[in-house]
Amino acid sequence: MFLEQGIKPQNKFWLYLIGSVLIIIASFIGQIPFSAAILYSSFVNKKAFPTDNEGAMSIFDPNLTLFLVMISFAFAFAGIYFVVKYLHNQTLLSVTTSRKKVDWNRVVFSFVLWAVFSALSFFALYMKSPENFVWNFKLVPFLILIVVGTIFIPIQTSTEEYVFRGYLMQGFANLAHNKWFPLLMTSLIFGSMHFFNPEVAKMGYVIMIYYIGTGLFLGIITLMDEGMELALGFHAANNLVGALLVTSDWSVFQTYSIFKDMSEPSAGYDVILPIFVVYPILLFIFAKRYKWSNWKEKLTGKISILESSN
Fold first, then answer.
1. Which of 29, 101, 153, 280 has the highest CB neighbour count under 10 A?
2. Which residue intervals of 195-303 are DSSP H helices?
3. Model confidence at 154, in pLDDT bands (50, 70, 90)?
4. Residues 6 or more apart from 51 whose CB is under 8 A from it?
5. Where are the transmembrane segments (predicted)?
6. Which of 40, 256, 229, 60 lies closest to 147 in space, CA to CA?
7. Which sequence spans correspond to the domains of the chain?
8. Taking Cα atoms as reference points, which of 162, 43, 55, 146 lies closest to residue 102?
């Protein structure tokens, strides 16, 4: 069982606190190249060092910015591997899935399902309000974006999944010895990590419903499927397709995407629809395909320390 794989007598919750700090430190180390590049650019061009995220993100070419920012996630992932192996004496597989090996068919199915849905949803929105979008396509920069995005965005999304749906979910299971508490806490923390995104400032705090709800959805499919494969595929598709299809001046990343959204952002049905309509439909599809059952026990049941330590 997925959560039970991390519950061992020696896996005290305070170890997860130490591990989280080490992962954060690794991420900070990974931010040094970006900070050094900004410092060098400021020195050469005799400009003040940017004091906010918006200023830092606008200094370099978008593809270079994307690459430099994503380096921190590669370092964070290395930190996860180190912490899991040497602090908790576990394998990376044990925080990935309860299966004997990673089921890549699950990853691909989830990725393709959400990529197709995201693309169709965008084009439906485009057909409804074409005046809100402008053609942003430039062949060479877009091809570079495909290469950089295809390599590094899955690293970014996988790092987040390993932190929240893998490492921290097992950590909170060690603390609470049940399944609902890890599900709730990781969803809340995942959502709160997006609090300082520029989308929140533009759309208001109601957008946090989407972020927390997405974390809850990813946690549910992880617990029901006894592994992170579906969450890994979904998250990678969500960020990669978004980066390739449409960008805006108020999003976290500005990319050489095909379209640029020129509309004034607002939180409406696009916040409510995924949480209360789209995600339940996806849960239904996954449940039918992978024959999920015993929902109450898998999402809220207690964890026996005796059984899990055998």
1. 153
2. 198-203, 207-225, 229-245, 269-273, 279-290, 295-300
3. very high
4. none
5. 13-44, 64-87, 107-127, 139-159, 180-197, 203-223, 230-247, 267-287
6. 256
7. 3-304
8. 162
User: Residue 258: which residues within 8 A CB-CB, separation 6 or more?
Assistant: 135, 136, 137, 142, 244, 245, 246
Question: 126 is written with which tokens?
Answer: 């485009």
26-71, pLDDT tens digit by residue?
A: 999 999 999 999 999 999 888 888 877 778 888 999 999 999 999 9
> Residue 276 carries which side chain, given as an amino acid letter?
F
Q: What is the pLDDT of residue 310?
A: 38
Q: By the 8 A CB rule, do 183 and 220 touch?
A: yes
Q: How far apart are CA 88 and CA 11, in angstroms?
A: 6
Residue type, 292: W
Instruction: Report which of residues 252 and 174 the model is more confident about.
Output: 174
Helix 62-82 and helix 13-30, axial crossing angle in degrees, nearest 10: 150
